[in-house]
Amino acid sequence: AQSVTQLDSHVSVSEGTPVLLRCNYSSSYSPSLFWYVQHPNKGLQLLLKYTSAATLVKGINGFEAEFKKSETSFHLTTPTAHMSDAAEYFCVVSDPGNEKLTFGTGTRLTIIP
Amino acid sequence: ETGVTQTPRHLVMGMTNKKSLKCEQHLGHNAMYWYKQSAKKPLELMFVYSLEERVENNSVPSRFSPECPNSSHLFLHLHTLQPEDSALYLCASSQRVTYEQYFGPGTRLTVT
To answer: B56 to chain A: nearest residue by CA?
Structure first.
């Protein structure tokens, strides 16, 4: 069975500082992993995806994530937080043996001016 | 949001009404999904359609009835809903099941 745990329900950082959103996963197979962002009253937008190629994945809006199999982690980072980054972020795992995506509970990112 | 549209964006309905939510994808995908997003709860997968056939129904009450007439359109028919059904209903599509999904903007449903 696959599962995903987002370790922080809420993260606050100052504008211009780095952001780290943590995600751990569990999967019986080699999973695909995704990060989505949801701005208020909007749908979810794909930020980036890992599908067994390079372990460091670059996405949109300056975000990147590193797949670490030994730590079963897929943390999302950006070096410089912008006010427009304030949103809810979801880590998602797709297990080829279980034909569906499993979403984490989300991390709300607040940017302090 | 580009590529998947949902109408209406907002809907208020009484418990005895019948209404339908519509989703359309312009991405040439073969799989479509309905999700329910309630405040302070994880995203809940409701239905999955692959090549217009329902492949998953996550124990959703029968007052929610999906319809997928073709690979581009997905409907969610609603009748005799309860106040706890108030939520954001999201539609998504993907090239295949397990591939990354692309979401619409959602329909904010309020049941009074």
So the answer is: A100
CB distance A105–B42 less than 8 Å? yes
* Residue A97: DSSP 8-state: T
CA-based nearest residue to B9, from A57, A41, A97, A113: A41
CA of residue B76 relative to chain centroid, distance: 6
Helix (H, G, I), strand (E, B) or coil at A53: coil
pLDDT tens digits, residue range A13-51? 999 999 999 999 998 778 889 999 999 878 899 999 998
- What is the DSSP annotation of A13-36? EETTS-EEE-EEEE-SS--EEEEE
> What string of H, E and C letters represents the secondary structure of B56-106?
EECCCCCCEEEEEEECCEEEEEEECCCHHHCEEEEEEEECCCCCCCEECCC
**Structure confidence by residue, pLDDT tens digits, B32-84:** 999 999 987 888 889 999 887 887 777 899 999 999 999 999 999 999 999 99
**DSSP SS3 for A62:** helix
Please compute Rg for chain B using Cα positions: 13
pLDDT the model gives residue A17:
97
Contact list, A42 vs chain B (CB under 8 Å): 1, 105-106
pLDDT, residue A41, reads 79
**Chain B contact set for A94 (CB, 8 A):** 98-100
